[in-house]
């Protein structure tokens, strides 16, 4: 779906673990469709690329109050390996997303899961399990409603 409207959401998904990314996206898109919110999906290689993709979307007016999409959902998976790379990716992707959300006042549902194993990742990503993609979409929708509430209240 690629409708350009005030309740449209951009989903940025890290595709490093493609099967898990698909399941996270399934949870998010089912939640958005259930709430009659349109969306567009774009992909990046991994979780570290999500903040830059979002920054580019914001800088070019693709996401934001007057943009093509009003909000964003970030989806990805980071699984611990044998090096410290896990900590760097998990910390920096989350920090970058939070910084952009605060700086630009854009609703962002964060669905980057951090896991110890593929089994744990599947449990957290699965629509029949913890459904973290759906959780990220619900968080995004809640923030969109909150933003609308404050916007309407400030006009009174």
Quickly describe the structure.
With 156 residues, the chain is an alpha/beta fold. It has five helices and four strands; from the N terminus they run βαβαβαβαα.
How would you sum up this structure, described in words?
- With 156 residues, the protein is α/β, with parallel strands linked by helices.
- The chain has five helices and four strands.
- The chain has a four-stranded parallel sheet with strand order 2-1-3-4, with helices on both faces.
- Strand 1 (9-14), helix 1 and strand 2 form a beta-alpha-beta unit.
- It is globular.
- The N and C termini lie far apart (35 Å).
Distance between the termini: 35 Å
Helix/strand/pairing class, anyone?
alpha/beta
Shape from CA axes?
Answer: globular
Q: Spans with pLDDT under 50 lasting ≥5 residues? A: 1-5
Number of strands: 4
* Largest beta-sheet characterization: 4 strands, parallel
Strand order of the biggest β-sheet = 2-1-3-4
What's the gyration radius in Å? 15 Å
The multimeric state of the shown protein is single chain
Count of helical regions: 5
Strand content: 15-25%
| Helix content class | 40-55%
Mean pLDDT: 93
* Topology pattern, helix = H, strand = E: EHEHEHEHH
């Amino acid at each position: 779906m690629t409708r350009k409207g005030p309740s449209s959401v951009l989903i940025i998904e890290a595709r490093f673990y493609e099967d898990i990314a698909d399941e996270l996206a399934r949870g998010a898109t089912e939640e958005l469709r259930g709430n009659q919110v349109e969306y567009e999906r774009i992909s990046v290689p991994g979780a570290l690329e999500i903040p830059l993709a979002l920054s580019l979307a914001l800088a070019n007016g693709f996401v934001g109050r007057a943009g093509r999409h009003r909000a964003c959902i970030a989806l990805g998976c980071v699984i611990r390996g044998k090096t410290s790379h896990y900590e760097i990716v998990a910390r920096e992707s989350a920090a970058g997303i939070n910084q952009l959300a605060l700086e630009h006042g854009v609703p962002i549902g964060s669905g980057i899961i951090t896991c110890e194993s593929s089994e744990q990742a599947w449990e957290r990503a699965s629509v029949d399990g913890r459904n973290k993609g759906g959780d990220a979409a619900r968080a995004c929708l809640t923030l969109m409603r909150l933003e609308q509430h404050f916007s309407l209240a400030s006009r009174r």
